[in-house]
Amino acid sequence: MAQQMLDVFQVIADPSRRQMLLLLSENSLSINSLAGHFDMSRPAVSKHIKVLEHAGFISIADIGRERHCTLQRQGFDAIQEWLSFFDKFWISKLKNLENLLNQKTKN
Amino acid sequence: MPTEINHVVYFQQSPEQVWEYITNSELIELWLMKNTMKPVLGYQFQFKMRPLPELKMDGIVYCTIMELEPFKKLTYSWKCGPGDGKLTLDSMVYWTLEPSDKGTALHLRHTGFNETEHLTLFGLMDKGWLQNMQKIVEFIKTPAHGATNA
Q: Is B81 on the interface with A (CB under 8 A)?
């Protein structure tokens, strides 16, 4: 199945995924022990974990025979990307306005 | 980490003249973007920019005029997202004009980039939910034989 691209809000909108993030905010956990917290099939848990990984909320590392999930900042940093984009945006637009009004003064 | 954008620009023109450039649709287009702005309290309008695939943004900014004090203050909401009515950025733009001896100081403040605000929206920080979750986590962590008579 093709991995659907979800935005951060869609990723977080799901209660099971929120619960997973909360569990992982306390501790890194293996997929098996994470699955133990949920009343759903192992493939269903894996699917949610994949969604979280794609969105940058968690990373997965193989330790021995277990796959371990760790919380990542990247998903939360998407908000910060908006800020840095619009900061540059406004600087350039305000420069336009300055040029426009300065020109008007000269004329 | 900064959570808001602040810029001040100084102009030789009077606040009345600068005001025109932040409220008149045609004048705004000259320096900012195509728009449907009207300086009316509660008025809903849009800005159109190029789409930003890297931010999953379709290029439309949805705004509502929240505060309007001619020649002094203009506030509008600033929302955008990937399309289909989904809005991933819910922010506010505040314009303030102050007369100075040489003309006008125009202050721009753009807020709503606060991580905790968004976490609140996500529901992660929802207090009741969080407390319940912690109870469940505590309960699960406690060994079965120690769970009673604590």
A: yes
Sheet strands side by side (includes B60-69): B4-11, B103-111, B89-100, B73-80, B60-69, B44-48, B34-35
Interface contact flag, B88 A9, Cβ < 8 Å? yes
Residue of A nearest to B114 (CA): A79
* Extended strands (E) in B31-145: 34-35, 44-48, 60-69, 73-80, 89-100, 103-111
Q: Which of A9, A85, A105 sits opposite B12 (nearest CB)?
A: A105
On whether the pTM is more than 0.90, the answer is: no
| Residue B92 to residue B52: CA distance in whole angstroms | 19
Residues 6+ apart with CB under 8 A from B16: B71
User: Closest partner residue to B31 among A78, A83, A100, by Cβ?
Assistant: A100
Name which of B1, B7, B52 is nearest A80 (Cβ-Cβ): B1
CA B72 to chain centre: 20
User: For residue A67, what is the enclosing H or E element?
Assistant: strand A66-71
pLDDT digits (tens, 9 = 90+) for B7-45: 999 999 999 999 999 999 999 999 999 999 999 999 999
List phi, psi (to 5°) of B84.
Answer: 55, 30
Q: ipTM, 2 decimals?
A: 0.74
